[in-house]
Amino acid sequence: MKFYLVVLSILCLSILSCKKERTCTCQIIDSGTTTTRSQSAGVAFSLNIGIPLPIPPITITEAKDTTIVTSYAYGNSRKTTYDKASKKTITKACPTKSEESYTDGSTTIIPGTSTVTVSENGKKTYTCKIE
Known about the structure:
The chain has helices spanning 2-16, 87-93; strands at residues 20-40, 43-45, 58-61, 64-85, 97-110, 114-130. 17% of the residues lie in helices and 62% in strands. It is built from 2 helices and 6 strands, in the order H-E-E-E-E-H-E-E. The radius of gyration is 32 Å and the shape is rod-shaped. The longest helix has 15 residues, at 2-16. The chain has one domain (23-41, 58-130). It is of the alpha+beta class. The mean pLDDT is 84. The strands form 2 sheets. It has a 4-stranded antiparallel beta sheet.
């Protein structure tokens, strides 16, 4: 009787731990801020006709420096299917939770008039589960 019980338990364990198709589903939350800084040069007009006149230059537009900060948060999900994977393999491949930070930036220069600088700072959070 013991022999059959041992054989049956080994058979059950081998069926439970066999390799099969497994799925890792991750919820991805991307959040952070985008900072946009716009700097423009002022435009002045001066009447210089060759004779020194005490006329000051006329300002057409003033120099400006503007900064706008915008927050954002996006949600997304990703599903990955592993064929013939054991439970141990899928546990290593599908982390429970992880985070990554990132920074990105760009600058656009219009010669003589303005500069626009955009920088993005954020964090991606992954929360995964095995199905």
